[in-house]
Amino acid sequence: MPVQIPTRNEFSGGTASSAKSPQPPILIAGLASLTRTFGPEISGLLIPLCAAQHNRTIVSSPAQLIVVSSLAALDRERRRVHIAAMEKITSLCVYCGSSPGRSEHYVDAARRLGASMAANNVRLVYGGGNRGIMGAVARGVLDNGGQATGIIPEFLMTKERGGEQSLELTDLVVTQTMHDRKRIMFERADAFIALPGGIGTLEELFEILTWSQLARHSKPVGLLNTSGFWDRLIELIDHMKDEGFVHTAHLIRPVMVNEPEDVVAALNGSLGS
Hints:
With 273 residues, the chain is of the alpha/beta class. Helix content is 40%, strand content 14%. It has a seven-stranded parallel beta sheet with strand order 6-5-4-3-7-8-9, with helices on both faces. Strands 1-2 form a two-stranded antiparallel ribbon. Strand 8, helix 8 (231-242) and strand 9 form a beta-alpha-beta unit. It is globular and about 50 Å long. The model is unreliable at 1-31 and 47-72 (pLDDT under 50).
């Protein structure tokens, strides 16, 4: 029976259907479908293959021989190779609060992170707002000659970009839904860092950690632990592991960084790990 090629729905919580038959799957897909799913490089290698025998697909290239047990494994390998080939990140998605918090250290750290990103030629990918920590990191980037891409749902434009002087971002992407916002942020970033924030920040962070745990990506994920803000979160993750609910802790252990100026180097150091 034919197998439906996994789609980008996997990145928004969907599950690709698969054949229920125990027989070896047959690869049936058009060029456009393969290109959307695996990218032009891998799809170019897959097109000549009309079947996957014994649930194994062999892909050869001048550089290496990749043997994978399924198309999903091939997709994971493509993503791993892409990350491993990078020597340094060129874009960083920042999750953070749209409020400044009670401590002035939070806003200061955000500005310093933005300045450091600009100095290292790392593009900011973030939620697009002007306010709070979100606005501080963007100003830190832009005031120091860096580039910033904001991605924001239309229904949040007034709340998060109105009422103050709007930042002149390098790019502003307005989406229809929160799901689209998170998907585009994921696609445009080489790595992720969470600064202090609230429930929304936690939701974004845990989604990207979940995708890592499920082997849907291998991009570095970090926490900027300003004034020990994330200490209790790490304690909670350790508690979940001790109680038997986390079995792949190494996949959901963010890189902990205390100083904003050390973030880019720390994330670069974890590439391919």
